[in-house]
Amino acid sequence: MPSFDQIRAALPLALAETNLPLPGKRAGKVRDAYPLDGERVLFVTTDRLSAFDRILAAVPFKGQVLNQLAAWWFEQTRDIIPNHALAVPDPNALVARAAQPFRVEVIVRGFITGVTTTALWYRYALGEREIYGHHFPEGLRKNQALPSPIVTPTTKGDAGAHDERLTSAQVVSAGYLDAKAWDTVQSAALELFARGQKIARQTGLILVDTKYEFGRAPDGTILLIDEMHTPDSSRFWQADTYAARFEQGDEPENFDKEFVRLAYAKQNYRGDGEPPTMPDDLWLQTAERYITIYEMLTGKTFAPGAYPVEPRLVKNFTAWLKDQSKIEI
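User: That's the sequence. What structure does it adopt?
Assistant: Structure tokens below.
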């Protein structure tokens, strides 16, 4: 892991955006996408940090952690459902199969927790007992395990737009997906989550909840796309201290973006209006947490890529393209 001083030195160089000499760029909350041809897309994972459906900061090495960790998980789960990953030409880049994303984000939750307006605990604490089409009994406590994981879909908000809650029935009735595709997606999501929980437990972590995105390839195949089981899309807790902290009413030790959400919640911010300015130390500690979870899950030592990122990325991608001899940059 890079030292705290190395992370601090990289803070002003964090990759907030890309401007590669390729046409058709599409900027999402975290990733910039560049179509390469009709079958492949280059995804660059920036250091942008998004929470409460807002881009809040650029965190050093965050993009590399997300890109490399997602690629690692894609390899661990190819037997469950096909995914879009083809190659990793740079620590921040993924070449993927082209796919039309479904307009639904698939959230799988194993615990009742969270501070965002779409989180189970937030809704439950407001007095709601029918949430995402699921019934929740009285007397639940924050961070309590659910009897079994559940699927809680939301709409897919673009950058700056809030995700809206859906029930599974609404996914089909509102025309987001046909019943057959939605059954395939739900089944795959629950199986992916079970695999993720098993692997996480083996490394001393609890996979609490996560977000999956799916899409359809030009040949009709349903693919797992975007990313999976990263600190951006998932909540992870320290396993060996969870039970004691839960009994004491303390927050679990987390290794994910919830660390940032809680810091903003303490400032009474949950996504509405202009976000407050936060100290640099929050982003440096966030970088450390992201790197730590990468190393815990993969068992690999994190090797930080050189900053600034874009010149390195262009060099590495150009070298990869020479081997492909199809597209020029």
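Residues 102-218+227-258 form a domain with the D-amino Acid Aminotransferase; Chain A, domain 1 fold (CATH 3.30.470.20).
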